[in-house]
């Protein structure tokens, strides 16, 4: 018999045995259950009901426990995807404010929203890549507007609003923003934020959509922005080309999964200016700028239709988008606050570890890592990242960290010794300091790896955090050595 066949026979026997055991267990359980059932029915009813009650309670407890263990994370994710309400964002701002986070940028967003809501005007933003003709479109709608138009891309460098009243009497503010994809840094973000703050976006392009343009549209759809997609400079295409391009644009939006109606994708000619060579009266030739004829009727129709169709929910949609912007700004401020504060926590804990190591007669990393300083630092960092670890998790993380700390101590000693050489004239002092610096380095690396996992996962997963500590340790040792050697020297020399 070959080995393969032998293994198969063994497996078959095990499977057969497992079936026999399963059938026996089923019979046994059924018999016991029926026995208990018969006895309960024979006895007084209150015992029967109490028994059923206890069973139900146990079943509910088991389901709850399994749910807590397995499904908890998913539930948290779904909750964060829900749109924010005014109360949610206010509460988050208050909490962040109380924690010391700089919430000014997020607050300013809400204040601006309130001012815009009070004015009652509809904000319509012209958004798109540079030189697609956004300013020209505004000029075509409001001929008296003092709009800067230039063949050289990047002519609009700041956000400006122009008043326009449509036939239905809506008070509309047309917003001209810098074109995206220009050279000046930061303007893309300014333009995108302003587009998200508006009620409606007129997305202006002048040919098929590039990848960057598609991404920009995707970003707007993620903020539930109503969009009119405008193919400008239609004068450059013949009828067939124009129809084909419009078809393509519609298809692209559909592929993005966006909902843009057919009549919200239009081709227009904003006009703009072109330079021609003109013969003067004296016979000389000179360049003069002439205006092209504008043809933007379909755009006006699309805007009017959108405003009359969706006037009611527009404000609610804009409000939700601005709450999202404010929440994003708050998140950025929180992240900045956390990185500053975590740096402080790690530095002060590392300093304590260094002092502890210098004070101890025969120090060991376990006193520091698993002792008071390690526990306090871990807890403080977890609190900062909103993780609520169980005591058991903290203990497990520190104990896993401890076993790794033991392994890297020789390396840390070598790095510390090397680092101390950078401070000339230390002489004999350096010998005693090397241990303190080595312990400080390990401690510093522990804190930094914990911050990395907390910022990625939002909770303390002991195994993951300890792995991060192990993998990043040599990098952390090298990058921290000068700072910690200096810290140890300061402590030593008072
Ligand atoms: N052929 C043609 N050119 C146009 C049309 N509309 C605008 N232009 C030209 O396109 C160029 C850019 O126009 P702008 O209105 O400044 O474009 P913009 O999108 O505001 O540009 P930035 O502010 O730099 O992003 C100018 O040279 C305009 O004359 C049009 O309908 N047809
Ligand atoms: Mg412009």
Sheet with the most strands: spatial strand order:
2-3-1-4-5-6
List segments where confidence is low: pLDDT < 50 over at least 5 consecutive residues.
72-80
Shape by Cα distribution: extended
**Number of beta strands:** 8
In CATH terms, what is the architecture of the largest domain? Answer: 3-Layer(aba) Sandwich
* Average pLDDT level: 88
Helix content: 55-70%
Determine the CATH superfamily of the largest domain. Answer: P-loop containing nucleotide triphosphate hydrolases
Write a structural description.
- The structure is a single chain.
- The chain has 494 residues and is α/β, with parallel strands linked by helices.
- The protein has 3 domains: 3-77, no CATH class; 120-295, P-loop containing nucleotide triphosphate hydrolases (Rossmann fold, 3-Layer(aba) Sandwich); 336-493, no CATH class.
- Helix content is 66%, strand content 10%.
- The protein is built from 15 helices and 8 strands.
- The chain has helices at 3-42, 45-70, 72-81, 86-99, 104-119, 134-141, 187-197, 211-222, 239-256, 297-359, 365-369, 372-384, 391-421, 429-457, 462-493; strands at 122-128, 160-165, 171-176, 200-205, 227-231, 265-267, 273-279, 285-291.
- It has a 6-stranded mixed β-sheet with strand order 2-3-1-4-5-6, sandwiched between helices. Strands 7-8 form a two-stranded antiparallel sheet.
- Helix 10 (297-359) packs antiparallel against helix 14 (429-457).
- The protein is extended.
- The structure holds guanosine-5'-triphosphate and magnesium ion (MG).
- Guanosine-5'-triphosphate is lined by residues 130-136, 149-151, 153-156, 178-179, 232-233, 235-236, 269-273, 292.
